[in-house]
Design goal:
The protein is an alpha+beta fold and 478 residues long. It has 2 domains: 205 residues, Distorted Sandwich (Acetylcholine Binding Protein, Chain: A), CATH 2.70.170.10; 221 residues. Strands 3-5-6-2-1-8 form a 6-stranded mixed beta sheet, covered by helices on one side. It is rod-shaped.
């Protein structure tokens, strides 16, 4: 035991010497990590590059305790498609990666002043930076080369067709603004191995994307926001950067093809109230208009986005417009029923209806009756009957009718028959006059009700249009 304790300092000295020698070798490797050049005017030699290429499977650092930093920047060139049903956003972007390769350094003074070379990307280690929202096979065109600086800084440009999942909201269609995220990070390496950062300020990335996306069709880029974060899964952590890509739809196509035709049909329906209800078949006109609007809805159904999460506001807009057309047709049916009741049945107007409609509602809608519908003075039927009785009495007391002539009796009977026929004709004319007056009263009530329903309908359409336009304008100016 004592001998072992005596040998312990010697063993500690040996251990120290071994670590010191190892440190010297490491320092020598650090110094000797630069590539050699074949001549004063040539770049790094082929043999030294082959030695670097052979170490492709390993992360290119001299100390594995130091993580490799991958700096990211990208430019969105086009929004290729937005599929609301499958919740997929397809974009085309140019991704640019920067990282340091500690084994690819050389002294430009010894290599003919060469500071940058291009090397095959398949022969070098590259960070496994992916887009976490990517849900399709990567069919992007590969870039065969990378640029390497004499300090070991590598730049890798890559074109990417990104098919990513996105929570698309279509309620505000066609004035919708979509907020989709593109999360860049390593797939296998944790935060101890790869750190992710920005190669350019996020404002410059957003401005570059806006500049190149100006010529696109349906979508307009609003801005791009970047948020660094740490993804935790169990005990491991991954360094990621989440970019918020905010795009806005250009609604001109849908306004011209959907909203304006629907508005025109609604305006025609409003103007149809100026057709006289008793002179033309307004119901047939409205039925034709309703049929045309239904065909329009069937045609434009392919232009509307469809999801299982909800219905866009424009779908509600079309449904309410269709409901308003049905209500307009129902109003015409009510007015036609009132006119038919006065023309066919010939019933008298109840007193409460006359008081409510003619006196109260007519004042509310400021209704003025036409000249032919103004009240006519009533016929004095009692005076006419009294005049007929007096005429018969005079005929009976006439001396020419009570003479001794034999034909006086037949003449009297003929005059009585003529008087009775005239009385029947007079009664028929009076009855027809009363029926005409009742019919005119029903027509007047129908006109008053039509004016009332028209104003309610016009107010409903105006309020509905104001609400829809205000909502869409507010969302479009976000």
């Amino acid at each position: 035991m004592k001998k072992r304790e005596a040998d312990r300092p010697a063993m500690d000295i040996c251990t120290y010497l071994i670590f010191a020698l190892w440190g010297t070798l490491i320092q020598g490797r650090l110094v000797a990590s630069e590539l050699t050049c074949t001549g004063s005017e040539n770049g790094p030699s082929y043999e030294s590059l082959q030695e670097v290429f052979s170490k492709k499977p390993f992360r290119p650092v001299l100390n594995y305790n130091r993580p490799t930093t991958a700096n990211i920047s990208f430019t969105i060139y086009a929004v290729l498609g937005v599929n609301e049903k499958t919740q997929i956003l397809t974009t085309f972007l140019w991704l640019r990666l920067y990282w340091d390769h500690e084994l690819l350094t050389w002294n430009p003074a010894q290599c003919g002043g060469i500071k940058k070379i291009s090397l095959p990307v398949e022969d070098l280690w590259t960070p496994d930076i992916i887009v976490y929202e990517f849900i399709d096979e990567d069919k992007s065109q590969r870039t065969p080369y990378v640029y390497v600086n004499h300090t070991g800084r590598i730049r890798y440009d890559r074109m990417m067709r990104v098919v990513s999942s996105c929570n698309l909201g279509i309620f505000n269609f066609p004035f919708d603004v979509q907020n989709c995220s593109l999360t860049f990070g390593s797939y296998m390496h944790t935060v101890k191995d790869i750190r992710v950062g920005l190669a350019l300020p996020i404002e410059q990335i957003s401005e570059n994307s806006k500049q190149y996306l100006e010529t696109s069709g349906e979508w307009e880029l609003v801005k791009i926001e970047g948020v660094p974060d740490i993804l935790k899964f169990g005990v491991d952590e991954w360094d990621i950067i989440t970019f918020r890509v905010i795009i806005k739809r250009r609604p001109l196509l849908y306004v011209v093809n959907l909203l304006i035709p629907s508005a025109f049909l609604m305006v025609i329906d409003i103007l149809s109230f100026y057709l006289p209800p008793h002179g033309t078949d307004r119901a047939s006109f409205k039925m034709t208009l309703l049929l045309g609007y239904t065909v329009f809805l069937l045609i434009m159904n392919d232009l509307l986005p469809s999801t299982t999460n909800g219905t866009p506001l424009i779908g509600i807009y079309f449904s309410v417009c269709l409901a308003l057309l049905v209500i307009s047709l129902l109003q015409t049916v009510i007015i036609t029923h009132v006119l038919h009741r006065g023309a066919v049945h010939g019933t008298r107007i109840p007193a409460w209806v006359k008081t409510l409609v003619v006196d109260l509602v007519a004042r509310m809608v400021c209704y003025k009756a036409p000249l032919e519908q103004k009240e006519k003075p009533p016929i004095a039927t009692s005076t006419v009957k009294q005049n007929n009785l007096e005429r018969e009495e005079r005929l009976k007391q006439s001396p020419a009718l009570h003479g001794p002539h034999p034909h006086c009796a037949s003449t009297q009977r003929q005059l009585a028959q003529i008087s009775q026929d005239l009385h029947g004709i007079r009664s028929s004319v009076e009855r027809r006059q009363r029926e005409r007056e009742q019919e005119e009263e029903w027509v007047r009530i129908a006109h008053i009700l039509d004016s009332l329903l028209y104003r309610f309908y016009l107010l409903s359409v105006a309020v509905y249009a104001a609400v829809i336009i205000s909502l869409w304008c507010a969302w479009y100016n976000i």
